[in-house]
């Protein structure tokens, strides 16, 4: 299986993060992930086709908001709290509190 792209902390940029969060579905994914340390793609409780969900997960991952860990055939999602807090202090807390 190919390696998934995750931007380094110095590659995180605010416009890409805000653009990713500009979609209500992706905001809902972040809201669901904020309540868990790590969860599977299926546990996000969003009623969309797999292809649409994959697109939203990719946008969130490539913007640097989430990390996707592959274990066998399962994909585990988590928010990149530490990296985002280091790069943009307080941003993620502000967003999550206002979703």
Provide a descriptive summary of the structure in words.
With 99 residues, the protein is of the alpha+beta class. It has a single domain (9-97), classed as Orthogonal Bundle (Arc Repressor Mutant, subunit A), CATH 1.10.10.10. It has helices at residues 14-20, 24-34, 50-63, 81-87, 91-97; strands spanning 39-40, 66-71, 74-79. Strands 1-3-2 form a three-stranded antiparallel β-sheet. It starts with 13 loop residues before the first helix and ends with a helix. The model has no long low-confidence stretch (mean pLDDT 91). This is DNA-binding transcriptional ArsR family regulator.
Spell out the helices and strands N to C.
HHEHEEHH
Number of strands: 3
Major beta-sheet overview? 3 strands, antiparallel
CATH fold field value: Arc Repressor Mutant, subunit A
Could you name the CATH class?
A: Mainly Alpha
List low-pLDDT spans.
Answer: none
GO molecular function, one term: DNA binding
InterPro entries: ArsR-like_HTH, HTH_ArsR_DNA-bd_dom, HTH_MetalResp_TranReg, WH-like_DNA-bd_sf, WH_DNA-bd_sf
Domain HTH arsR-type: 6-99
Pfam families: HTH_5 (PF01022)
Name the features.
single chain, WH_DNA-bd_sf, Arc Repressor Mutant, subunit A, 99 residues, transcription regulation, DNA-binding, transcription
